[in-house]
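The methods section describes the discrete structure representation at length, but only in general terms. An entry of this sort, consisting of the sequence and the corresponding backbone structure tokens, reads as follows.
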Amino acid sequence: MDLVIAVLIVIAVQLVMFLFLRGRIHQELNATTLLKDVQDEVDGMVRELNLSAERNIGLLEARIEEMEALLAQADQKIILLAREVERREKAAEVYSQLKRAVPELVAQPQPDLPGAEPAAQPEPVMEWKPATPVTAEPTPPRSLKERVLAFRDQGLEPGAIATTTGATRGEVELILSLNPQ
């Protein structure tokens, strides 16, 4: 009899455990519960994606502003370059006009004509001769310091000056720091 009671107690405990675990399994595997968990997970992922997108948009806007500033600087440099090209073309045109022949007036005596009275002084005859072309002496090469300061005055940045002059950026920055505007 004790054995039957013990077996009945064990069966009763197992039945209670079975029902408890079955209820718990149904609760965990319930469709609405699973759907809610999935929806919560998706909402969390959407929030993370939105934060990432906002951060990326902020970075892109900052880069766009930097690019616009660089474009404005490039536009200014293009304008300066166009002015410099125009100035050099005008200088070349003036220089080429200086190279053209300039007439020189040379006085030559006129031969006496027969039957004419000799004048007190013969009137000179002017003859046109081309002038010798004007040659300018080549300017001696300027020092690195002079070139760097000239480029700075034109509005170039140290990196561009270094590239143009063939010097290192450190040399250019040293010259600029020792010669403030």
